[in-house]
Amino acid sequence: TEKVTLLAIESSCDETSASVISDGQILSNIVATQVVHEKHGGVVPELASRAHQQNIILVVQEALQKAQIDKSELSAIGFTRGPGLLGSLLVGTSFSKAMALALDIPLIEVNHMQAHVLAHFIDEPKPAFPFLCLTVSGGHTQIVKVKSHLGMEVIGETTDDAVGEAFDKAAKMLGLGYPGGPMVDKLAKTGNPLAFPFPISDMPDLKFSFSGVKTALLYFIQKQTPEFIQENLADICASYQYTLIRTLLLKLKKASKLHGIKEISVAGGVSANSGLRLALAEMAKKERWNIYIPDFQYCTDNAGMIAIAAHYKFLAGEFTSQSVSPMPRFAI
Ligand code: KG4
Ligand code: ZN
Questions:
Q1: Using a 6 Å cutoff on CB, does residue 168 contact ligand 1?
Q2: Where substrate is bound, by residue (predicted)?
Q3: In CATH, what number does 129-293 get?
Q4: Atom 24 of ligand 1, nearest CA residue
Q5: Is any atom of ligand 1 closer than 6 Å to the C-beta of 269?
Q6: Ligand 1 centre from 139 Cα, in Å?
Q7: CATH topology of domain 5-117+299-315
């Protein structure tokens, strides 16, 4: 039988990415990270769409070249339809439509959050259904119950900021640059997590909230001298990060008990956090969970996860019409 070879495009935020997948095997995953946002301390949507426009063809060419696939061999094109920034999504969507039209092959729309979850099916070991996925990124904080490759349900979500945002905003307040998550992570490694207590939010059910802890940090900084902050940077980062991790694991444990599921996975950019990985491994031992974290390159935004999602949608015969437009808000 003929191979199913797909090209996938990701352009929802500040990463322009293309990937080639053949019969479920990732052959290439090229990511161009936009650096123009660093000096602005956050993603500037207008600049993001321009950078996507500049990068997209080069990234696609590199992905095809690395995979040693000619575009005539492609069976379909997968792309991120949302959620994300409209101007960014428009670049990937328009490009994918034009290329599918030119090659006379079908289009497959992919939900970016569903793709973060499906990143677990790129490499071994793969979680067994049903499993829970804590999806933690710069834009989202969700607990997803995954019943099948394409059957997912959000059972818990943030009511305000995403946890990645809580990392990034703290880093900004502490003058650590953007994106702040990796910097806070690095400093936290040498700090005392119990040095400064920050409030752990306990919203009802499986709801998250991160605006309280962020405000608590702001007040804490305002009360101290700049010298004190500089001298205690590692302890502040460790304490703040500890609070975020505790909040995440508190809800994850609650979700596991509530749904009777011990297959537990984490996805999204924040799953790169070393403190979260350690705390999760500890909790897994205590609670007898099987835990799954994708390879680092498939945790942060990338087209490999869009490719694996498109692969399952291709097998299910879920194609998208050429009149499709992006959906900045797009529920799983
Ligand atoms: O999934 P992702 O690449 O993009 C979105 O879809 O948002 O996640 C980016 C987020 C940023 O908030 C970044 O600060 C955070 O992931 N992040 C981290 C770490 N690496 C990336 N947060 C904490 N610790 C890290 N090591
Ligand atoms: Zn993402």
A1: yes
A2: 135-139, 168, 181, 185, 273
A3: 3.30.420.40
A4: 273
A5: yes
A6: 9
A7: Nucleotidyltransferase; domain 5 (3.30.420)
